[in-house]
Amino acid sequence: MSGEEAPTQQQQPEQEKKPDDPPPAPSDAQQDPGSSPAAAPERLLSFRALVLTGYGGYDKVKLQLKMQSEPQLKPGEVLVRVKACGLNFAELLGRQGLYELLPTPPVTMGMEGSGVIEAVGEDVKDRKVGDRVIVISRSGMWQEVVVVTANHTFPMAEQMSFEEGAALPINYMTAYMMLFEMANLRPGKSVLIHMAAGGVGVAATQLCQTVPDVTIFGTASASKHETIAQGGVTHPIDYRTKDYAEEIRNISPKGVDIVLDPLGGSDTQKGFSLLKPLGTLIVFGAANCVTGQKKNLLAMAKTWYNQLSLTMLKLKQANKGICGFHLGYINDDELLSRTMYKLLELYRQGKIKPRIDSCHHFEEVADAMRRMHERLNIGKVILLPEAKKEEEKPKSDPEPVENVEKTKAAANEKKEEATEELKAEKD
């Protein structure tokens, strides 16, 4: 099996659709639309889904055609035809077996999307067929049709596109809760945003601008500086060629008030040292653990070895605060809903607007993941369930020259890796 899959790691591993898989077997019981047992197999529902078949490289995410009886909606549930889905760093971790909240493969990934309600169950009063909605879920959103509880759907603003709807929930809820619920962002404060061109980075930058006189330091590669500066970053810093801690000290000798840390390891230590007295460090990721398509035990060990370790006495003497944030472990539906409605209001007021980096059809999921993994994106990467037309090309901004060169180099490396893996398997 692995010998057949190895060569697909090179360019477009997911162009092979999976209608040849055993059709009637609904393997993903967790989030499939037909989880309720049907009394009689009346009409069949077919839908495309991206299924994580095992842990590893891009080739482990397969496009499958599923067929099953039409779902029998329970009270409070709605059936949504998905038009766009969001890709998050959590899915890159999940593919490598590093996201503990994802059910064991085979499983459909995806935590956010947008679409149109096609059916409603009993007791659903504030949603109706035809409503355009944003949908959040623990997993299972990367498919054409989903069944969710109505309170996990949110009416889209009239002017909002499906792509923007899918881009809003995870990134903006994460940024909002960190900045306002945890760090208590106020006028006159300063914030360090790592990976400022990513989904959470763009969201945090926009939300900072809803508060007067906030200074934003943002790390990103040099080719993205003009874009993030236009987006509101006061001081863009190239983390690849400069020591960002030193750069910040040159501009603000006392440091910053808030650090948003998605990196982990030694960067957490740097972030803590950059805090002013009474400042807040919020750790919400471990991007330093992910260095390749597959799990890298050395990178994981290095990240954890270099993580920040403090006694309570030292923390008290430092007069600084450390917080941890993980949206997946927030089970308070009321808090999630309240945050989503605040964000939708900010969107209607024109104060926030998701930046869409690129859109990829389900057939192109490997390209989408690769784009995020190699940090080529500026903003949100979107997946489209609709089948790709023959002549259609991925919708994305042109890549800077240095990124094109980097992509070519990475592709050559992947070809060599794939060849070596194939040889090893044959031996």
Key attributes of the depicted protein:
427 residues, alpha/beta, eight-stranded mixed beta sheet, six-stranded parallel beta sheet, 13 helices, 31% helix, globular, disordered N terminus, disordered C terminus
Q: How does this model look, in words?
A:
By secondary structure, this protein is of the alpha/beta class. It has 13 helices and 18 strands. The protein has helices at 2-5, 89-95, 162-167, 169-182, 199-208, 225-230, 244-251, 266-274, 297-305, 312-318, 333-348, 365-373, 401-426; strands at residues 17-18, 44-52, 61-69, 77-86, 107-108, 112-120, 132-136, 145-149, 153-155, 190-193, 215-219, 235-237, 256-261, 275-283, 321-324, 356-361, 380-384, 395-396. Strands 4, 6, 7, 8, 9, 16, 17 and 18 form an eight-stranded mixed beta sheet that branches. A six-stranded parallel beta sheet has the order 12-11-10-13-14-15, sandwiched between helices. Strands 1-3-2-5 form a four-stranded mixed beta sheet, with no helix packed on it. Helix 4 packs across helix 5. The protein is globular. The model is unreliable at 1-31, 398-409 and 414-427 (pLDDT under 50).
Mass-distribution shape: globular
- The rounded Rg comes to 22 Å
**Stretches where pLDDT falls below 50 for ≥5 residues?**
1-31, 398-409, 414-427
User: Regarding quaternary structure, how should these chains be classified?
Assistant: single chain
